[in-house]
């Protein structure tokens, strides 16, 4: 969980505690009014649990401050806008998240990204995307709408060919070897990457295993212009739009870019990984 998210949740808990104290109630008394376990009141006040919209409305009513409900829900909305759990985002399948990505792409002129384990969705073939999405459905136990999501992901790639846009991506060399799909599918995906090298809207860099690093690669991230950074974790995405976070990720991207190879050197690394599949041409 991000420090910023936890700080915001603690601040919300502190506000809940203030409202309870102003009403002259202790935690046990408030729990009785709400019909909750006292432990839930404690977890909310100490930032150990994220309240629901309904929890906040009930809290405001219980302390006689219906007018505070809007404030509390506004705080929660800000918290949820930054920390977006996969469970919530994929409640209706993967396609809605793909549609959201399409919207962000169209608002952006310069997209920078770092990937450490998978080919970016913008560059995926349909077969590669299908295997990745199916594995995600199984892992996250989300609704299965794989074919709709694949179509949306491929439709998203139309933005790559629009003049005036720029896509600058760095891939850790391990991406080229990750067996997230059958070898024949991976071979076609690697061929797709080769075909993208040289497109005027795309700058594709590969960070070799042997490259010296000023900055290690703990996780992937995407930077949309200078307005938004999206970081994917196992259980959530972080949507960071504050200037300090954006500047930090831009610096990380710049440092990693120093270690990347491009053009014919990147082509050689991709060709070497394809040859390792043992499929020939």
In short:
With 281 residues, this protein is of the alpha/beta class. The chain is built from twelve helices and seven strands.
Note down, in words, how this protein is organized.
The chain is of the alpha/beta class and 281 residues long. The chain has two domains: 3-84, lambda repressor-like DNA-binding domains (434 Repressor (Amino-terminal Domain)); 90-275, Endonuclease, Chain A (2-Layer Sandwich), CATH 3.30.870.10. The protein contains twelve helices and seven strands. The chain has a seven-stranded mixed β-sheet with strand order 1-7-6-5-2-3-4. A hairpin with a 3-residue loop joins strand 5 and strand 6 (228-232). Helix 7 packs parallel to helix 9. The mean pLDDT is 92.
Number of H/I helices = 12
Q: What's the number of domains?
A: 2
Q: What does the radius of gyration come to? A: 23 Å
Q: What is the CA–CA distance across the termini?
A: 45 Å
Sheet with most strands: strand arrangement? 1-7-6-5-2-3-4
Structural class comes to alpha/beta
What's the CATH architecture name of the largest domain? Answer: 2-Layer Sandwich
Give the biggest beta sheet: 7 strands, mixed
Measured by DSSP, the beta-strand proportion falls in: 5-15%
Taken from the alpha-carbon principal axes, the silhouette is: elongated
Q: Please give the number of β-strands.
A: 7
């Amino acid at each position: 969980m991000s420090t910023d998210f936890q700080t915001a949740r603690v601040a919300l808990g502190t506000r809940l505690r203030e409202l309870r104290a102003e009403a002259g109630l202790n935690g046990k008394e408030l729990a009785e009014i709400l019909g909750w376990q006292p432990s839930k009141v404690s977890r909310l006040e100490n930032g150990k649990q994220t309240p629901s919209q309904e929890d906040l409305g009930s809290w405001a009513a219980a302390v006689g401050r219906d007018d505070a409900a809007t404030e509390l829900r506004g705080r929660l909305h800000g918290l949820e806008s930054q920390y977006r759990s996969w469970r919530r985002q994929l409640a209706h399948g993967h396609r809605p998240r793909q549609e959201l990505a399409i919207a962000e792409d169209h608002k952006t002129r310069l997209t920078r990204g770092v990937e450490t384990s998978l080919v970016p969705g913008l560059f995926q073939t349909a077969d590669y995307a299908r295997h990745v999405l199916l594995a995600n459905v199984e892992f996250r136990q989300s609704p299965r709408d794989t074919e709709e999501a694949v179509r949306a992901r491929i439709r998203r790639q139309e933005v790559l060919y629009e003049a005036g846009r720029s896509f600058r991506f760095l891939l850790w060399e391990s991406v080229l070897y990750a067996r997230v799909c059958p070898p024949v599918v991976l071979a076609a995906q690697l061929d797709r990457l080769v075909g993208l090298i040289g497109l005027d809207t795309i700058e594709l860099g590969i960070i070799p295993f042997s490259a010296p690093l000023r900055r290690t690669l703990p996780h992937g991230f995407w930077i949309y212009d200078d307005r938004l950074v999206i970081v994917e974790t196992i259980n959530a995405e972080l949507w960071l739009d504050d200037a300090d976070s954006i500047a930090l990720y831009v610096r990380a991207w710049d440092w990693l870019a120093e270690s990347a190879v491009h053009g014919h050197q990147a082509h050689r690394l991709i060709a070497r990984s394809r040859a390792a599949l043992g499929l020939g041409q």
